[in-house]
Design a protein that fits this description.
One of its GO terms (molecular function) is nicotianamine synthase activity. The chain is an alpha/beta fold. Helix content is 38%, strand content 18%. A hairpin with a 4-residue loop joins strand 8 (293-300) and strand 9 (305-312).
């Protein structure tokens, strides 16, 4: 049982106390400094397993993920507003302090995507796109240059700000669409997408995350791909973790854990057909998954270390 005595956990708890006592999480010197310290603390590869944390630390982790989500929302809104003041917002994306991380993460996601599909998708959904939909923008601009992107967010002001960023661009304004909806209310439209991206902070606790995954599994077209963001090691203090067993109705293809400054892990899974054994009423009943391996990769592009470990999917789900 990992508890307060672990130096990393101690440091995270100290930072949590300081962050939780802030009056506001909007960008300012103190907020920026504390969250930078938190990220730097959690970034190095760590053997810590957050599922083995004691109850008090589990509670702090859950609260910290919510605080990180709130701060990230404020940061994106702040920079989306600044960018929206330019005549050509997309020419100034590099003013966002983590833009280079999004370039790396999008490149990583594109590489993983092309490894598992023979044709580039024509229509994708990004769920939880927010006021600064950098993943969609970067993928649409540099990688999926003929694909249409349907961005879903529950917040109308976030969509309004996001639309402002692409409306002056002759290409992206024709290929990027914004829908103000709760993903749990989207049903048959999900059948239209070759790939569904799920943002890291859609479902900030395990129960909500699994509910969202179950919902998209019910309505996605068999064979379509789901790309999710997760976290590994101490980075799980910053973002929720998606386990292979959470992906009912999907065949997990690959799990990728970056070890550089890209914080999120990437999980890709394929919607599998409902077997005859599953009843119509319960399409997500336990399904016998293919007895095949999926990859877990640890990759640091800075030193080109690439370790590949194959794990049996049924072992992961047991």
């Amino acid at each position: 049982m990992v508890c307060e005595k672990d130096p990393l956990v101690q440091k995270v708890c100290e930072l949590y106390e300081q962050i939780s006592s802030l009056e506001s999480l909007k960008p300012c010197k103190d907020v920026n400094m504390l969250f930078t310290q938190l990220v730097v603390t959690c970034m190095p590869p760590s053997p810590i397993d957050v599922t083995k944390l004691c109850k008090s630390i589990q509670d702090i982790r859950c609260k910290l993920i919510r605080l990180c989500g709130e701060a990230e929302g404020h940061l994106e809104s702040h920079f989306s507003t600044i960018l929206g003041s330019y005549d050509n917002p997309l020419h100034h994306l590099n003013i966002f302090p983590y833009y280079s991380n999004y370039l790396k993460l999008s490149q990583l996601e594109f590489n993983i995507l092309t490894k598992h599909c023979s044709n580039l998708p024509t229509k994708v959904a990004f769920v939880g796109s927010g006021p600064l939909p950098l993943t969609s923008i970067v993928l649409a601009s540099f990688h999926l240059t003929t694909t249409s992107f349907h961005n879903y967010d529950i917040d109308p002001s976030a969509n309004s700000m996001a639309l402002q960023l692409v409306s002056s661009d002759p290409d992206l304004s024709q290929r990027m669409f914004f829908h103000t909806s709760d993903i749990m209310d989207i049903t048959n439209d999900l059948k239209d997408y070759d790939v569904v991206f799920l943002a890291a902070l859609v479902g900030m606790d395990k129960e909500t995350k699994v509910r969202v995954i179950d919902h998209v599994a019910e309505y996605m077209t068999p064979g379509a791909l789901l790309m999710l963001r997760s976290a590994h090691g101490a980075r799980a203090f910053l973002y929720p973790v998606v386990d292979p067993c959470d992906l009912r109705g999907f065949e997990v293809l690959s799990i990728f854990h970056p070890t550089d400054e890209v914080i999120n892990s990437v999980v890709i899974a394929r919607k599998i057909p409902i077997t005859k054994q599953c009843s119509v009423e319960y399409p997500l009943a336990p399904t016998k998954l293919p007895n095949k391996c999926f990859d877990i990769e640890m990759f640091n592009p800075l030193n080109h270390v690439n370790l590949l470990e194959e794990l049996d999917i049924e072992e992961q789900l047991s």
